Amino acid sequence: MKFILDFLFPPSCPVCKTVGTEDGVLCAKCWAEFNWISDPKCFVCGYPFPANIDLGSRPLCPTCASGKNVVDFMRSSCVYDDASKGVMLPFKHAAALKYRNLMARAMINSLRDLSPKAQCAKGDVPPFDLIMPVPLSYRRLFKRGYNQAALLARPIAKHFAVPMDVDSVRRAHRKDMGHKNAKERRANIRGVFKVRRPDEIKGKTILLVDDVMTTGATFYELRRVLKRAGAKRVYGVVFCRVVRAI
Questions:
Q1: Number of C-beta neighbours around residue 171 at 10 A
Q2: CA angle in degrees (0–180, nearest 5) for 146-109-217
Q3: Higher per-residue confidence, 185 vs 41
Q4: How many Cα atoms within 13 Å fall on the side-chain side of residue 52?
Q5: Which residues of 32-58 are buried (b: 16+ CB within 10 A; e: fewer)?
Q6: What confidence score (pLDDT) does residue 7 get?
Q7: 8 A C-beta contact, residue 159 and residue 174
Q8: CA 60 from chain center: how many Å?
Q9: Alpha-carbon distance 238 to 111, whole Å?
Q10: Per-domain residue ranges for the chain?
Q11: d(CA 200, CA 142)
């Protein structure tokens, strides 16, 4: 059946439509246009450092070195720029769900530094117990028709064979945080999340999933609320992140 479908509807690059070997996989040309995040990067938050410098096996950015990291462990697939915006924004706001597979695969690849099934040695990044898409308010969910974070979280949860939790945390509606600075974003989102099922959270290591990280205010607030509810650790993964000079 797959052979017949591939013959009738050949797999293609989701960006430029070039026929390829697997549906949802970027062609070499489109792949090269993305600013993928690789080593060297901050061991905790994954912030990319300039290439070709040796910072040791577990370097830290100034934010994480000072203990002000937004979550306990963070990874991002690529930098937020024209290439990633061309995928992320249509997926988020225009129901361009054709981009889900490439985004989820890239996010899974960015998590190669840890493995939920591995026996972690002392000092290594431990596994996670739950995968939680960043919640949307009911008003925004109704307007958009879907939670883009949940669509990304589902294949990630399937890949790692880890349960996905979409019910333990609810989000109140607030005005959009676009064009706000970091301080304004944190003030705007303070108190927006509420844990409804603390028994599902207590003692767990949770991986938060979202499409983009701008200032980290959303992850910071979710981590605060989840830790207060008894979560052991809170990690995060996004497709792209805003990168500023440090």
A1: 21
A2: 55
A3: 41
A4: 0
A5: eebbbbeebbbbbbbbbeeeeeeeeee
A6: 43
A7: no
A8: 20
A9: 10
A10: 1-33, 36-241
A11: 26
C-beta pairs of 193-198 under 8 Å, 24+ apart in sequence: 193/135, 193/169, 193/221, 193/222, 193/225, 194/169, 194/170, 194/225, 195/168, 195/169, 195/225, 195/226, 195/228, 195/229, 196/167, 196/168, 196/169, 196/170, 197/167, 197/168, 198/168, 198/229, 198/230
Per CATH, domain 36-241 is 3.40.50.2020: yes
> Scanning the structure block, which residue is given the tokens 């995968």?
131
Residues 129-181 have pLDDT tens digits of 999 999 999 999 999 999 999 999 999 999 998 999 999 999 998 877 666 77
Judged against a pLDDT cut of 70, whether residue 9 lies above it is answered with: no
| Length of the chain measured in residues | 246
- Two tokens at 33? 């246009």
Q: What is the pTM of this model?
A: 0.89
